[in-house]
Specification:
two-stranded antiparallel ribbon, 2 strands, mainly alpha, 15 helices, Amino acid/polyamine transporter I, 478 residues
């Protein structure tokens, strides 16, 4: 057998698994699946409510604008995967590694705090959304039997379902790392597109039943009859920005996803592969988001629920609602893992390299098979990953406000992780001259997004405060 060409030999040395890290086997399609799993999640279900606050003019325009900003900033970020030469330079395997290589100093610690706070917040939001969908399955059956007007009799709390979901995540959190979960991301991506399609189909059916397209150019009316004051209109519009930002949020794990892409022979690079993956993912999600948000608003107008599949604008066919909400839960199991795996990997590395080097507790592993699923379990991994799941589950039981929490998480993380750090790293790595047209354009983009992020955070905080007033944290049946 002839020896491999020199360029392929170099590729294998750089990124094929001979650097002491897991062998990378990902492709553009698996990377796209990871991104879609992380993006099309619980956020898509709140888009009809967001469009209702902004209207037919503002709603679609804001979604397209966010999609364009996310795409541009993601392209900047994937350029920072390697330092120096884009084909053979040192790999920045995580977001923090890229910040350390390009910016250094205090910004590394700031990035770490923001990124891991966002990981935690998103996992909390995912747990809330999953429990709401699980509760909706029971409620849909109750409405079908008792009648659509029995909202009080078919009520209940989502908190017990949070515990069930937490139990599922304890098992799935034992998946060793993100390299071993392509199958889960693929399944989750299929589920996300499936329940989005069901939501769109039900919305179209509702529009036909109504005999009209509902909604206005400017969104929810202000006045006594509408039940919304001028200030509430402002806060809710800002919160809608946060909901849309949350729906598009994936930059905080983009480099971790890029690190799963296998090395390819020059002139292609992981960066070129990820550019294609980002383009496919953002285009797909934008189309799905526009359809879900606009169809939901056309069906319900100003009465659009903050969760399209669980707000019970739809009652029948109940079995289809059950199928869609079951798909939401399956998808969010994968989303939780895509988001949490960087946290797991970070502490695993720190514990192995710095905290307890050579520890038998860290090194001892056992292979456990659950059906066709093979899990490699170690005592340390079992204890600490279970603890992480328990903490996110406990936090979810204290803050079961789906719409408000989605907006707050999206707004708070949008500017620093999606815009600021990618812009600053790109400027530093490419040595963009200060004051040049490119530098001014990038700084203007960052400043504009900062204003949007601050406004969205303010609106989302107001929404959380309003929801918390009617919340009893000790009641597990209401």
């Amino acid at each position: 057998m002839p020896p491999p060409p020199p360029e392929m030999d170099q590729v294998l040395k750089v990124g094929g698994g001979e650097d002491g890290q897991p062998r990378r086997t990902g492709t553009m399609w698996t990377a796209s699946a990871h991104i879609i799993t992380a993006v099309i999640g619980s956020g898509v279900l709140s888009l009809a409510w967001g469009v209702a606050q902004l209207g037919w003019v503002g709603g679609p325009a804001v979604m397209v604008l966010f999609g364009a900003v996310i795409y541009c900033c993601s392209v900047l970020l994937v350029e920072c995967y390697r330092s120096g030469d884009p084909a053979t330079g040192p790999r920045n395997r995580t977001y923090m590694d890229a910040v350390r290589a390009s910016l250094g100093g205090f910004k590394v610690r700031l990035c770490g705090v923001l990124q891991f706070a966002n990981f935690f917040g998103v996992c909390v939001g995912i747990t809330i959304a999953s429990s709401v969908s699980m509760l909706a399955v029971r409620r849909a059956g109750c409405f079908h039997v008792r009648g659509h007007d029995q909202r009080e009799a078919c009520g209940g709390s989502s908190r017990p379902y949070m515990l069930i979901y937490g139990g599922l995540q304890v098992v799935f959190s034992q998946i060793p790392d993100i390299h071993d979960m392509s199958w889960l991301s693929t399944l989750a991506s299929i589920m996300s597109l499936s329940y989005s399609a069901i939501g769109i189909a039900l919305g179209v059916a509702q529009i036909v039943a109504n005999g009209e397209v509902r909604g206005t150019l400017t969104g929810v009316f202000v006045g006594a009859g509408a039940g919304v004051t001028s200030m509430q209109k402002v806060w809710r519009s800002f919160q809608a920005f946060g909901n849309i930002a949350f729906a598009y949020g994936f930059s905080f794990i983009l480099l971790e996803i890029q690190d799963t892409v296998k090395a390819v022979p020059p002139p292609s690079t992981e960066t070129k592969v990820m550019r294609k993956a980002v383009a496919v993912s953002v285009a797909t999600t934008t189309v799905v988001y526009l359809m879900c948000g606009c169809v939901g608003y056309a069906a319900f107008g100003s009465e659009s629920p903050d969760n399209l599949l669980t707000g019970f604008g739809f009652f029948e066919p109940f079995w289809l609602l059950d199928l869609a909400n079951a798909g939401v839960v399956v998808h969010l199991v994968g989303t939780y893992q895509v988001v949490a795996q960087p946290v797991f990997a970070f502490l695993d590395r720190r514990a192995a390299a710095a905290a307890w080097p050579g520890s038998t507790a860290l090194g001892r592993k056992r292979v456990v098979r659950v059906g066709s699923l093979s899990l490699t379990v170690s005592p340390f991994r079992l204890v600490w990953r279970t603890a992480f799941v328990c903490v996110t589950t406990a936090a979810s039981t204290l803050l079961p406000f789906f719409g408000s929490m989605v907006g707050l998480i999206g707004a708070a993380s949008f500017w620093p992780l999606t815009v600021y750090f990618p812009v600053e790293m790109f400027i530093a790595q490419r040595r963009v001259p200060r004051g040049s047209a490119q530098w001014v354009s990038l700084q203007a983009l960052s400043a504009g997004c900062l204003v949007v992020s601050v406004a969205a955070s303010a609106g989302s905080i107001a929404g959380v405060v309003e929801a918390f007033k009617a919340h009893n944290p000790l009641c597990w049946t209401c």
